[in-house]
């Protein structure tokens, strides 16, 4: 018969293993929904790179080289390459299985990084972004990749909620400090969530969309809770949806 | 002989800059638009040999723009640039509109220029004939003549040069005259009579 002590040890090992698997599948879920939109994000800068480089080649072939123009071209190539590097790095982080690394994180920077993953899609859907960031913003203790995942999920949902609203689709994001916490408001003026679904929207496998599994908000909530934070949501059909997130400030150690 | 007038429609300014650069280096006159709506507006006021448009662009996407262009004559060749072949093929209605060609991103400059060259060569017959006439017989083309161009036998005063300008300006008169010229051709072929 297994001793109680051994049983506890065995169960602890199992829980630990399952936690790691859960973390991994959370990341995979986010990655999966992003895969198709990411290819579009990457193809645009690749087109800029190809066209710029080939134009330089043509200039050289036709012996019409203007060093000022070539200089601008090379600057554009470097800038655009860095855009792609950013996206690829994020892809790597999201797909890499690793233990969360807690660091001092600036929420404004995290939000900007997440927005960079959606630049082309937001543009092609005519969605504007309004940022009301408090600067400087005190840091919170979190894992950079996980925190970015939260905002990636929110932006992704907002983009879907604004599908078809080409006129004045807008995502408004504001950050501020109050009562020893960082408060974030993330709002869109899209289709909104039906009153019947609103109380359940943060639960797993709840979705209003045809595609996707309904884990995005649940994962975001889990991540936020793991840092001692909270998330609440308000919504009105055809008016929009707003998320309120709070995080305790990183205490000086 | 003009090399051609191109309308370039894309919401990414860096792409517009590079495509325009390549086209201009080949001697084309290039105008640009940053959205489907702006493209349509510009198209209304001038005839273009070719329209190059991105597919995915906000309110009026490239395909919608192409369909609208297709409703006007003379018909312009439209090249649609798409990101993903399969996704695009599933969207277009196989029975309705067909662009002159589809190019997949990222587009190579040589490829783009070859397609544009092809499209420009397949110029609208009426416009090409008028252009040729105006170029080779400039005095005659500028002289207004009395001519009856329709069954209704209304006489009108027009010069080839004026008509060409109206057609290229996409004006109401230009559109009407274009239709009459087409009808005239049909009449000649079917009745062999001209009053």
TrEMBL record, chain A:
Gene3D superfamilies named among the record's database cross-references: 1.10.287.130, Histidine kinase-like ATPase, C-terminal domain (3.30.565.10)
Segments forming domain Histidine kinase: 37-251
InterPro entries attached to this UniProt entry: HATPase_C_sf, HATPase_dom, His_kinase_dom, HisK_dim/P_dom, HisK_dim/P_sf, Sig_transdc_His_kin-like_C
Enzyme Commission number(s) of this protein: 2.7.13.3
Keyword Nucleotide-binding: yes
GO MF annotation: an example: ATP binding
One Pfam family, short name: HisKA
Catalyzed reactions: ATP + protein L-histidine = ADP + protein N-phospho-L-histidine
Keywords: ATP-binding, Kinase, Nucleotide-binding, Phosphoprotein, Transferase, Two-component regulatory system
Keyword Magnesium among record annotations: no
Protein name: histidine kinase
Automatic annotation (TrEMBL), chain B:
Protein's recorded name: Response regulatory domain-containing protein
SMART domains: REC
Source organism (scientific name): Candidatus Thiomargarita nelsonii
PANTHER family documented for this protein: RESPONSE REGULATORY DOMAIN-CONTAINING PROTEIN, STRESS RESPONSE REGULATOR PROTEIN 1
Lineage: Bacteria, Pseudomonadati, Pseudomonadota, Gammaproteobacteria, Thiotrichales
SUPFAM superfamilies in UniProt: CheY-like
CDD domains, A to Z: REC_YesN-like
Keywords: Phosphoprotein
Any coiled-coil regions, as ranges: none
